[in-house]
Amino acid sequence: MTGPMAHSRARHNPADGKALVRRVAAAVAVLFLLIGLLGFVPGITSNFGELRFAGHQSEANLLGLFQVSVLHNLVHLLFGVAGLALARTVSGARAYLVGGGAIYLVLWLYGVVVEHDSGANFIPLNDADDWLHFFLGVGMIALGVLTTRGRARR
Predict the structure, then answer these.
(1) Contacts of 88 (CB under 8 A, 6+ apart)
(2) How far apart, in whole angstroms, are the C-alpha atoms of residue 29 and residue 81?
(3) How many domains does the chain have?
(4) Residue 1 placed within a domain
(5) SS3 assignment, position 36
(6) Residue 13, domain member (yes or no)
(7) What is the C-alpha to C-alpha distance for residues 59 and 154, in angstroms, rounded to an integer?
């Protein structure tokens, strides 16, 4: 059947025509935007008065756990914006998830190797940040691979 009647019987799905990897990348990007914004909200970020532009001297903690600075929050915001831009194509979305995951694994290694009290800890990072970065890295790579697996054969 064609025409208006055929359309009215079809199930409406707002995600029709949008590859899963694109939806996942956009969701991850929105999560990073939210995290970046919440890092600037007093109460959600404890010790907000101690928020510094960068460096391990920033004593502000997102959710009382993850050490943040203005730079850290801005990086999350930029990472979210980049993710939304890249989620517009399948290849961009996969690159965002896999490449971004690799970046987070490098950041995890950096956090594990660098002394948290040193000037080299300019982001800043603490143990909670380090392990969050590890799980984000592994999770993003897994999402990028699993949501595009078998796609080349189609």
Answers:
(1) 22
(2) 7
(3) 1
(4) no
(5) helix
(6) no
(7) 51
Q: Using an 8 Å Cβ cutoff, are 116 and 124 in contact?
A: yes
Of the candidates 139, 136, 138, 144, the residue with the CA atom closest to the CA atom of residue 66: 136
Question: Mean pLDDT per 10-residue run, the chain (154 residues)?
Answer: 46 60 98 97 96 91 94 96 98 98 96 89 88 96 93 47
Contact 80, 140 (CB under 8 A): no
Distance (Å, whole) CA 103 – CA 137: 7
Full domain range(s) for residue 51: 19-149
* 11 in any annotated domain: no
Query: Is residue 53 in a domain?
Result: yes
Strands annotated E in the chain: 45-46, 61-62, 66-67
Provide the whole-model pTM: 0.83
In this structure, the dihedral spanned by the alpha carbons of residues 73, 75, 81 and 83, taken in order and rounded to 10 degrees, is -120
Whether the CB-CB separation of 119 and 58 falls below 8 Å is answered with no
Do 123 and 108 touch, CB atoms closer than 8 A? no
